[in-house]
Prior knowledge:
Blueprint: E1 6-13, H1 19-31, E2 35-38, E3 41-45, H2 48-63, E4 67-74, H3 78-86, H4 91-105, H5 113-132, H6 139-159, E5 183-187, H7 192-205, E6 210-214, E7 225-226, H8 242-249, H9 256-270, H10 278-291, H11 295-324
Parallel strand pairs: 5-6, 5-7
Antiparallel strand pairs: 1-3, 1-4, 2-3
Amino acid sequence: xxxxxxxxxxxxxxxxxxxxxxxxxxxxxxxxxxxxxxxxxxxxxxxxxxxxxxxxxxxxxxxxxxxxxxxxxxxxxxxxxxxxxxxxxxxxxxxxxxxxxxxxxxxxxxxxxxxxxxxxxxxxxxxxxxxxxxxxxxxxxxxxxxxxxxxxxxxxxxxxxxxxxxxxxxxxxxxxxxxxxxxxxxxxxxxxxxxxxxxxxxxxxxxxxxxxxxxxxxxxxxxxxxxxxxxxxxxxxxxxxxxxxxxxxxxxxxxxxxxxxxxxxxxxxxxxxxxxxxxxxxxxxxxxxxxxxxxxxxxxxxxxxxxxxxxxxxxxxxxxxxxxx
Length: 325
C-alpha cells in the first residue's frame, strides 16, 4: 500500500497590475514542478527544501503586491493520495524528450566532435531538468532513462569508438619503477579519458613512455601495455574511468590536484557532477582535435593545457590550508 504523503500548498493571489511579475511567478512555479490544484493553489510534496522554495516565492509575491499563504497538510486517504500524485505525472515531458532523442539521432552523422558534445550537453540538461521535478518516477522515467543511455552510447561510438565496458576487479598498487621505458597503446583519435591518461602516464608514471595509437584494440601487439579498451592492462573498473584507475594503480590518488583533474575526466567521459572547468576543457579538447592531424600532435598540444590545470589545482590546494589556519 502506498504510504500517505504530506504536501506543501501555496495559496496565492498575484498582483493584477504587474503582468511581468505574474509571468515571472508562473514560470518559477512551473520550473519547480508545482502541480496546480486549482486556480491560485499550488502543490509540492513536502520537504524542507520544497517548503523553503515556496516560502521564498510567497515572500516575493507579497512584496510585489500580491498575497500568498503557505500551508502543510497530509493526504486524507489513498484515493486523495493517488489523485494528487497524478498531478505530477511527467509522462508527457518524457515522451517529448524521447522524441527529441529520435530527432537528434538523425543529425549525428557528419557532426564534429564539438557539435556532438554540445548536442549531448543540451540533451543531458533537458533530461536532468525533467528528472529534477519528477517526484514520483515510474514507467515513463524508466523508458526515458533507457532511451537516453542508448543515445549516449551511440554518441560514444562516434566520439570514442570501442569505449570500454567497466571491469569488476580489485585495483592493485603497482610500482612505477617496474613501468619505465615501456610502450603503451590505446585507441586512436583520442578523446578525454585516453588523452588525459596518456598525459598522466608521460608526466607521472613513465617519462620515457612510447605510445601506439591503435586502429582497433584487436591489433594491440604482445608485450605492449594497453589502456582504455576492453581487455587492456588499465581500463575502466567499476565506476572509475581509466584515468582514475591509473591514479589508484600507481599511488597517485593522494594528490589533490590530480583528483581534481580526475573529476573533470570522469564527468566528461561517463557523466556525473561536472567540475566547473569541465566545459572549458572539453571545448579546448574538441577544437584541438579538429586542428591536429594525428594523436601525437593531439597529446603534444593538449599536454600544456593539462599541465596548466594541474598547476592551478596544486596552487589552490595549497591555498586552502592557509585560508583555514
